[in-house]
Amino acid sequence: MSFPKWRPVVAALLLGSLLLSCSSTGKPVTAGSVKPDKDRKVAPSFELKDVDGRTVRLADYRGKVVLLNFWATWCGPCKIEIPWFMEFERNLKDRGFAVIGIAMDDEGWDVVKPFLSEFGVNYRVVQGSDVVAQLYGGVEALPTSFLLDREGRIAAVHVGVAGKRDFEDGIRKLLD
After folding, report:
1. Does a structural domain hold residue 37?
2. CA 59, CA 46: separation in Å to the nearest integer?
3. CATH at residue 26
4. Domain residues for 42?
5. How many whole angstroms separate alpha carbon 137 and alpha carbon 125?
6. Per-residue model confidence (pLDDT) at position 1
7. 62 lies in some domain
8. pLDDT computed for residue 37 by the predictor
9. Which of 60, 89, 95, 156 registers the highest number of CB atoms within 10 A of its CB?
10. In angstroms, how far is CA 37 from the centroid of its own chain?
11. DSSP state string for 51-105
């Protein structure tokens, strides 16, 4: 049985696309480890509407470890992370953990609502904006996630798709 010459090329292209985020910059993924307490800055506050039209305030999550995820329905790497986040929400919410997804689709709820339904997303999702993205340093790539400690400070940043273990280790460290 011969091995087609094009298979290694396709495999390399697929791997490369997984390692990059959905951005026009083509910047590589960076997975941030949890920063020491003294190096953490308070996460910018926001008030955004969820799928039911209710206001979600980041301040209401103070006291919890929060995974704040900027994403979009068209972003392939975002779709890789979402099932992990659903699992974390399910398994860790009783320990004071929450996921907030910030949908950055230009089409808004028209595309986000069906996506959430299809995927069965079990965590809070709000409609984002460029204003909120700018508060967080100008989110230039999707997915971009911020892991917040119980005091609402940014403990880690993940730009692009990061490994499930990277997220899990940081979350558990902040919960313990």
Report:
1. yes
2. 8
3. 3.40.30.10
4. 6-175
5. 20
6. 43
7. yes
8. 84
9. 156
10. 22
11. TTS-EEEGGGGTTSEEEEEEE-TT-HHHHHHHHHHHHHHHHHGGGTEEEEEEE--
Of 82, 72, 67, 135, residue with least CA distance to 104? 72
Beta bridge partners of 156: 147
Residue 102 · residue 134 · CB < 8 Å: no
> What digits encode the pLDDT tens for the residues 24-35?
344 444 445 889
Reported residue count of the chain is 176
Could you give the CA distance from residue 36 to residue 19 in angstroms, rounded to a whole number?
Answer: 27
Residue 1, domain member (yes or no) = no
Q: Is 35 exposed, middle or buried (0-12, 13-18, 19+ CB in 10 A)?
A: middle
Amino acid identity, residue 154?
I
What is d(CA 151, CA 149) in angstroms, rounded to the nearest whole number?
5
Is 96 within 8 Å of 175 (Cβ atoms)?
yes
Calpha distance 175→92 (Å, rounded): 9
Residues 6+ apart with CB under 8 A from 18: 76, 77, 80, 161
Number of independent structural domains in the chain = 1
User: Tokens standing for 105?
Assistant: 């689709």
**What six digits make up the tokens of 122?**
């079990």
Q: Is 153 exposed, middle or buried (0-12, 13-18, 19+ CB in 10 A)?
A: middle
Q: Kindly give the parts of the chain with pLDDT less than 50.
A: 1-21, 23-31
